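Forum > Structural Biology > Help requests

Title: Can anyone predict the 3D structure of G5 domain-containing protein?

Hi all, first post here. I have the sequence for G5 domain-containing protein but no way to get a structure on my laptop. I'd be grateful if someone could post the structure tokens.
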Amino acid sequence: MAQNRRKKISRRMTQKRRRRMRILFGLAVLCAIVLTGASYLVLYRYVSKVPEHKICDNIYIGNVNVSGLTKKEARELMKEHLQEDMALKITMKVGDRSAEATLEELGLSYKDIGKVVDKAAGYGKKGRLFTRYRQIKGLKKEKLVLGEGFVLDAEKTKAVIDERVEGLADHAVDASIAKSGDGFEIIKEKKGKTVDEKASEEMIVDYLNDRWDHKGFKVKMAVKTEEPSIKAKDLESIKDELGSFSTDAGGGERWKNLKTGVDKINGTILMPGDELSVHDTTAPYDAEHGYVEAGSYENGQVVDSFGGGICQVSTTLYNAVLYSELEVLERYPHSMLVAYVDPSRDAAIAGDYLDLKFKNSYETPVYIAAEIDSANQMRFTIYGKDTRAEGRTVEYESETLTTEDYGVTYKENKEAELGSVQYSGSPHTGKTARLWKVVYQDGAEVSRDIINNSTYEKSDQIIEVGTLTDNAEAAELVRKAISSQDKAAIDAAIAEAKGLSAGESNGE
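Reply #1:
Sure, ran it for you. Structure tokens for G5 domain-containing protein below:
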């Protein structure tokens, strides 16, 4: 019995202790809730001091302080700052040589400045309350710097490197060949260096985003080994003359242009499948590149222009190409007949729309030798490995299909004395023609094919008749006769008009 009573007493005491513990725990929880609520209120009041629509203090994008700005204001400020950055210069070095460009020329821009501004505006505004509090509190001690996210325009950067930097490298040198007596002299190739454009662009972008202090700067461009495209062993097969042609080089200023064009083409090597554009090889046509003003065709007239005569260079080469039986890709006749070759054997060059282009259709390299020799003959000779059948030869025959004689056109010249006659223009007969390729085997004709058809416009003789006089009646008399385009009527009107003028001067 006593034992049972002790058990009951012990059980009641345990229950009392448990009730006290629950009460104490409840009080502790209540206190914690009260304290937490107070802390939350304190934190909330702290973070709420920063206006929701403005960026927190001590936040930078790059070196630009955007604190207290709205997102719109921050974006506008960054655009203004970008304009300042774009005006700065970068010095690109290759070895001990260098070239400059503005960052605008390289196409400097932001990858996504709007996203960066959003990040700046959201700092201290998003996430759990304690996180926001910690972020804003931290800005009191240390500024937050966000990267601008600079990028370059790949095409603009490549254009600048190609134009200004690529030439600074010690590039590979192709093997070359020259005619020497009865044989050929081959000069061995050399390896070199070229600018690694992609790696250089990446290096500049990395610098802009990681270390740039928003001042002009220098960068050492990335380079890589460059192999020569033509090697000495490639040229060992060049032993035979494939074809040649010459025209008389004449003299005067025009001769200088022929010599300049010849020198630019001389020594050209075309590997199998390579193409040559005479325009691209010889242009630009200006004084800086060795050309002078000389006669050329323009709108049916002969006028002086830089590079006048370059068409004779392309024409002479065209015929050498025909005899070499290379593949002609593009060829155009002149607007009017030329004197140095038969119709349909010419090849005009004009602007970027008339060109002579051809391709090395052999399986081995060809070499173009060009010169104006001691007899003043402009000659092109094409060498290579002749794989044509022994005894096979080719000739080219020009056939005139139609002819149209030029006429005479009378024009008034108000600045010339009444009745005076001046000849101008460049009279040319019009023609249509075609060129035949005739193949012979051991002297016997085996084929005849049309190579091209050409049309040459006629160009009339221009005769300018003066009408300058104080006698309006006399001037009108000649003017009406000019409109008739009748020589007899014009001659008669001139005689009558001079009589009127003479009578007036005598007081009649």
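The mean pLDDT is 89. The first helix runs from residue 2 to 47.
Shout if anything looks off.
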